[in-house]
Amino acid sequence: MSDSDTPWFKSTKSGGNGGSCVETRRHNGMVEVRDSKDPTGPVLTVSRENWRAFISAAKAGDFDI
Fold first, then answer.
1. CA-CA distance, 3 to 19, in Å (whole number)?
2. Tell me, what DSSP letter sits at residue 30?
3. Which residue of 25, 28, 48, 59 is most buried, as measured by CB atoms within 10 A?
4. Rg of the chain's alpha carbons, rounded to an integer?
5. More confident residue, 5 or 28
6. Residues 5, 26 contacting (CB under 8 angstroms)
7. Is the pLDDT of residue 1 over 60?
8. How far apart are CA 56 and CA 28, in angstroms?
């Protein structure tokens, strides 16, 4: 693991929903996302810039229905 790599983690706000969460980590200069219920399943890998844009849009309510 390089200095910028991190272990998988869930948001502290994800408690109490029965474990239905996503986990993220930094790995090889990218951000990886996976389903916490399926840790050996598929992993979505995105650039750090795209992850920041996604998080900013989510916080701004851009994906609200």
1. 29
2. E
3. 25
4. 13
5. 28
6. yes
7. no
8. 22
